[in-house]
Design brief:
Elements: E1 18-21, E2 24-26, H1 32-39, E3 46-49, H2 56-60, H3 66-70, E4 75-79, E5 94-98, H4 99-108, E6 115-120, H5 124-127, E7 150-156, E8 160-163, E9 169-176, E10 179-184, H6 191-199, E11 219-225, E12 230-233, E13 238-243, E14 249-256, H7 269-275, H8 285-302
Parallel strand pairs: 1-11, 2-3
Antiparallel strand pairs: 3-12, 4-5, 6-7, 7-14, 8-13, 9-12, 9-14, 10-11, 10-13
Bound molecules: fe (ii) ion (FE2).
């Protein structure tokens, strides 16, 4: 008799640290210039409460049957694990199926099953359900350097493993379901205490906590995303995400270009990792060095520091 363990993997609490509330600002209180100056230009994550509540998706996507009834035949990757690192491989826990079939299978799956259709390009059938961000004018929402502009994640119980983006800004926009999100930033001082453990997935072992520093000095900033909420996710910030319910959830990752003065700092461990030969980079080494020099010069001219307190 096969015994199947249906336990749902959660990732946030696998990394020990002291927890503080992620700053939350109501979307009606956030001016575009304040968002740009105080968050994007300082790489400070924030939850913009209700930042997408005016989008048709917020009204429609949580309604039972709506997504399935409008689902495209577009083929995507469909997995039965959480969104792990490295990503699951096609043919093992991943298969290709249409969005329509994937949504049907998610609906039929039990509340303790894990299902994921990660990083779908926005199907034409759903484009009109999305909208604009009032706090991000078009003139600032420039084409991202590496990531696609918009990717949709549809899931059931699928957490997203701790990771960071070495490039581009992201607005994680919750369209259906509720999620918990946690952030931390590593420095040159504690990178070696955390990054190798996370890269080796040792935090998933039962004894995972023992691989981390015992002093609990890491500060994690955490908050909840409900439909219509937007989390600003700067590059270099590690983030882990756990669904808080077992309904079919949907999240849009909207990316835009990082301004030059926030591109990178050669002493920052995340920037140094970008220079590592092991990591596939969108830039050659000389091109990356030139961009880092430009970034440092731009910061100097503006009188800005690289690290800003949250
Ligand atoms: Fe991410």
């Amino acid at each position: 008799v096969a015994i199947i363990n249906h336990s749902v993997v959660k990732v946030i609490d696998l990394v020990p640290g002291s927890v503080k509330d992620l700053p939350v600002i109501d979307h009606t209180m956030l001016e575009a210039d304040v968002f740009w100056r105080e968050h994007v230009c300082k790489h400070r994550p924030v939850i913009i409460k209700g930042g997408a509540t005016h989008w048709p998706a917020i009204r429609k996507w949580g309604q039972p049957g709506y997504l399935e009834a409008t689902a495209p035949t577009q083929e995507v990757m469909y997995g039965t694990t959480f969104n792990c690192e490295p990503p699951p491989v096609l043919g093992k826990s991943m298969q290709i199926k249409s969005v329509a079939d994937g949504l049907r299978d998610m609906r039929l799956a039990s509340d303790v099953s894990t299902c994921s259709m990660p990083a779908i390009s926005v199907p034409p059938e759903w484009q009109d359900d999305l909208g604009q961000y009032n706090f991000l004018p078009d003139r600032l929402a420039k084409k991202p350097r590496a990531y696609g502009k918009m990717r949709i994640f549809v899931y059931k119980n699928a957490s997203t493993e701790w990771h960071y983006h070495p490039i581009d800004e992201t607005l994680t926009t919750q369209l259906a379901g509720t999620k918990r999100i946690s952030f931390f930033r590593l420095t040159a001082k504690n990178w070696i205490d955390y990054q190798p453990v996370l890269a080796a997935n040792l935090h998933h072992l039962d004894c995972g906590r023992h691989f981390f520093p015992k002093n609990g000095s890491l500060v994690k900033y955490e908050g909840t995303l409900e439909p219509g909420d937007v989390a600003y996710l700067p590059p270099f910030w590690w983030h882990g995400i756990d669904p808080m319910d077992s309904s079919i959830g949907a999240t849009l990752a909207y990316c835009f270009r990082t301004p030059w003065h926030r591109f990178g700092h050669w002493k920052d461990p995340a920037t140094r990792a970008l220079m590592s030969r092991k990591r596939k980079s969108v830039y050659s080494a000389p091109a990356l060095m030139a961009r880092l020099a430009l970034s440092g010069l731009a910061r100097q001219l503006r009188g800005e520091r690289w690290h800003e307190e949250i």
